């Protein structure tokens, strides 16, 4: 039975945010990936277009989420459904780190505005 202990989770950092990876093919998942996102105060992450659906659940804090040009303030307990092909930007205008839980299918990539494609290790 695959069990990923909190001490075994792998942490990745990009664009000022931390991604603490729990479920990936390397930890025994065949179809899904899941991670905890830590979005520090003042973060203004670049917009990126995803190739897989993501379910983004905010556990702690508040964020501004821009999805396909529409911005919403979300609070702890809110969930954002990000469809494949959507363009997403995340901003934390508060004084506190926001914590999220995100799930997607294996194979997620994200394309930045300049055409750079990122294949995040926490989602592959």
Describe the overall structure.
The chain has 124 residues and is mainly β. It has one domain: Jelly Rolls (Sandwich), CATH 2.60.120.10. Helices cover 0% and strands 52% of the residues. The protein contains no helices and 12 strands. It has strands at residues 10-14, 17-23, 32-39, 48-50, 54-60, 62-67, 70-75, 79-82, 87-91, 98-105, 110-112, 117-118. The strands form 2 sheets. A 6-stranded antiparallel sheet has the order 1-2-3-10-5-8, with no helix packed on it. Strand 11 and strand 12 (117-118) form a beta hairpin. The model has no long low-confidence stretch (mean pLDDT 96).
Summary tags:
single chain, mainly beta, 12 strands, 0% helix
Domains, number: 1
Uncertain segments are none
Oligomeric status: single chain
Q: What integer is the average pLDDT?
A: 96
Write down the Rg. Answer: 14 Å
Note the total helix count. Answer: 0
Instruction: Give the full name of the CATH homologous superfamily.
Output: Jelly Rolls
Shape: globular
Q: Give the topology string: H per helix, E per strand.
A: EEEEEEEEEEEE
Largest sheet: 6 strands, antiparallel
- The percent of residues in helical segments reads under 10%
Strand line-up across the major sheet: 1-2-3-10-5-8
CATH class: Mainly Beta
* Portion in beta strands: over 45%
According to CATH, what is the topology? Jelly Rolls
Structural classification: mainly beta
Distance between the termini: 20 Å
């Amino acid at each position: 039975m695959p069990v990923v202990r909190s001490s075994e989770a792998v942490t990745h950092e990009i664009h000022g945010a931390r991604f603490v990876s729990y479920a990936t093919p390397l930890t025994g998942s065949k179809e899904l990936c899941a991670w905890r996102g830590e979005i520090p105060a003042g973060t203004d992450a670049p917009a990126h277009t995803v190739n897989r659906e993501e379910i983004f659940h905010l556990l702690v804090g508040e964020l501004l989420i821009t999805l396909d040009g529409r911005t919403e303030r979300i609070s702890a307990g809110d969930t954002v459904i990000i469809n494949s092909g959507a363009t997403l930007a995340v901003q934390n205008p508060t004084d506190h780190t926001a914590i999220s839980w995100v799930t997607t299918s294996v194979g997620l990539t994200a394309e930045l505005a300049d055409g750079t494609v990122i294949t995040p290790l926490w989602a592959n």
